[in-house]
Design a protein that fits this description.
25-stranded mixed β-sheet, 5 helices, three-stranded parallel β-sheet, 489 residues, mainly beta, globular
Length: 489
């Protein structure tokens, strides 16, 4: 399936963003204004000594004073010279030059620029000035040669992420500008195959499932990552993916219309994601998905997405168990979730496990928000989930408020039973939900190890779905004005 955009038509892409939301019929995805009177937690993460130590360790990188503009290396804003609209080489030259001098800031100034993939190096702050819009040209061949990457929790040699760093230290994407990913009904998104009401259909060749199924079997068979290469590859790249990096900062920017997941640090240490706005309604448009990372802070971000807003991950099935690196020490504070499949989500690619999550002070509301707190896995993924803590969530409108589902996708057909340990949800205030709870454990392994305290649901339309739970600690759960106890909710 070819792309309709070409390098000769770069300037025609500028209007694609406005058309995207209309095509998908998502005009109702804005949040519903709600007023909450419950106390608000501070951002100090004063849960316990463990949370405080994590917060003290996470520090944003600092950079040398050298500061250059990509226009100094030949980049031209769109409209000034159509023959020079592609700024790919100028950006590469600027990054290489600044890195060679010990690091500093590479600025995209105000204006509209077009580029292929951006590869960051150590000690580089990639800065988008106010008024800057950096469009990523949606031509797959530009995102070759393939790089070492991870796709839905499985490693391979695949298309370069739009912004990528591999085994670098001190990297940042900052500023007040906009990153435009080029995902649209014409470009990238159709590789999903059938999806919602999209009219691109199920293409017999250009469909991710054909590549995906072979890749997953390669992982099960233990094929080396270097050999997981596809001549016909329909696995869309993530937007931002630092891989095995240390000291990462993503701050201030707006990220729009991603081909796939938006912010996806993998196997990174000391990651700060702060004050970003993620707006992408395409398929698999997860907002922020840290995978197998250690010491992560996500704060003051807004997510308005076509999939999970925040999803914590650690590798899928055999590949996740091979790498065997949990996602651990994650702090989430003061984020806003609008449309999405879930607000704060664990899974489903969690075969490496997740531990030490502290999420607090988040607001969520939209008729297009499916879940507030969600854990999704099965007995093929497995995963040991321990010390997961949520507090002070204020939810206006949502379909299912609290979801723990062991039957996600394949269900109970594998040998790797999920394990929950020390899961705490407290001070959750929901104004309107279709269901308060969806809790689905196995008959041989019920959901246990969960503590619920001060969960208030003002209006709930339907009875909860509760299957196979055991020894759930409960205190002050109120639904439709009445004090209740699980499973009678």
């Amino acid at each position: 399936m070819g792309f309709q955009a070409s390098r000769r038509n770069l300037l025609k892409l500028a209007g694609s963003s406005a058309a995207t939301a209309g095509f998908l019929g998502l005009s109702g995805c804005s949040s519903v204004t709600q007023t909450f009177t419950q106390p608000v937690a501070t951002g100090d993460f004063d849960w316990n000594d463990d949370a405080r130590r994590i917060r003290q360790r996470i520090r944003a990188p600092e950079f040398p004073p050298l500061h250059v503009s990509i226009t100094e290396y030949g980049a031209k804003p769109a409209g000034e010279s159509s023959s020079q609209a592609d700024a790919t080489q100028a950006i590469r030259d600027a990054i290489s030059d600044v890195a060679a001098q010990g690091g500093g800031t590479v600025e995209v100034p105000a204006g509209e620029f077009y580029t292929g993939p951006v590869h960051l190096k150590s000690n580089i702050n990639f800065y988008l000035a106010k008024g800057a819009v950096l469009h990523f040209i949606p031509e797959p061949e530009l995102y070759k040669p393939y790089v070492f990457t991870r796709w839905e929790g499985t490693e391979l040699m695949g298309y370069s992420p739009l912004i990528y760093a591999f085994e670098e230290t001190n990297v940042a994407i900052t500023g007040e500008g906009t990153l435009e990913g080029g995902g649209s009904p014409e470009n990238w998104w159709p590789w999903k195959g059938k999806w919602k009401e999209a009219k691109w259909g199920d293409h017999p060749v250009a469909n991710q499932k054909y590549t995906r199924d072979v890749l997953r079997q390669m992982a099960e068979d233990g094929v080396p990552v270097a050999e997981r290469v596809f001549e016909e590859n329909y696995l869309r790249p993530p937007f931002i993916q630092p891989y095995r990096c240390k000291n990462v900062l993503i701050s201030g920017v707006t990220i729009r219309n991603s081909p796939f997941w938006l912010v996806n640090p993998v196997l990174c240490t000391n990651v700060t994601v702060r004050d970003i706005y993620c707006h992408s309604y395409g398929p698999n448009s997860d907002g922020c998905d840290p995978e197998s990372c250690t010491d992560v802070l996500i704060e003051n971000c807004t997510f308005d997405t076509g999939d999970d807003c925040i999803a914590i991950k650690s590798g899928r099935n055999a590949d996740g168990r091979r790498v065997a690196q949990p996602c651990e020490n994650i702090l989430i504070n003061d984020c806003t979730m609008k449309a999405g499949h879930g607000g704060v989500v664990i899974g489903s690619e969690i075969s490496g496990g997740v531990r030490n999550l502290y999420a607090q002070n988040c607001e969520m509301s939209s008729p297009d928000l499916d879940r507030a707190v969600r854990i999704k896995t099965n007995s093929i993924r497995g995963g040991h989930l321990q010390n997961l803590n949520y507090r002070q969530f204020r939810v206006g409108q949502v379909k299912d408020a609290v979801v723990i589902n062991f039957f996600y996708e394949e269900g109970d057909v594998g040998e790797f039973t999920p394990k929950l340990e020390d899961i705490t949800i407290e001070n959750l205030y929901v104004q309107h939900a279709e269901r308060a709870f969806v809790l689905r454990g196995y008959d041989h392994t019920p959901i246990t190890g969960v503590s619920l305290k001060n969960l208030i649901f003002t209006k709930v339309d339907k009875k909860s779905i509760i299957e196979n739970i055991d020894n759930i600690s409960q205190q002050n759960i109120r639904v439709n004005g009445k004090t209740v106890e699980l499973p009678d909710v």
